[in-house]
Amino acid sequence: MNEGNATRAMIEVRVKELAQLFNSLDPSPFIERDLDAEAEEYIVGWAREYPANAELGIVIHLPAAEAAKAESIDLAAALGNFFATRAEALGRDLKELFRTGRLYLSVGLPVLVACLGASQFVRSTWGIGPVPRAIEESLIIVGWVANWKPIETFLYDWLPLVRRQRLYRRLQRTTVDIMPS
Question: Among 30, 35, 62, which residue's Cα sits nearest to residue 47?
Fold first, then answer.
């Protein structure tokens, strides 16, 4: 649907009872309860299909009695709270990833420096030739391979977490409409 210049993407969920949306083993109060894993996967899966600039909306189709119950317990706040909690958890995961990346780097850089120094030592003491050259190149390769993981962490590993966090933030702000069926 188009409303002005903004695109509104609707995610439609049909359930027979409100309890199907939430994890039945979670003892938390309703507003803090986790979504059922399948419900979360369904909503997030559909949200990922829509453009990042699309305004999201969730329409929950419920039987009339369940729809009235959903209205009275503020289903929109419960969904928003769930996705906010997920986004915060991903923020913590991202911080942990960068903390681990710094640890990798604190190991990788000294190994690189040691390997480069050792390769220069091999060149200066053993001279040139196929065996010293192979050892020299091997040391350089080992030094760079020791930095593979920190480079991968800082260049690539964070991006899926940030994308997922942004998606959860979008879902946190989404409108929730309850449609009696």
Answer: 35
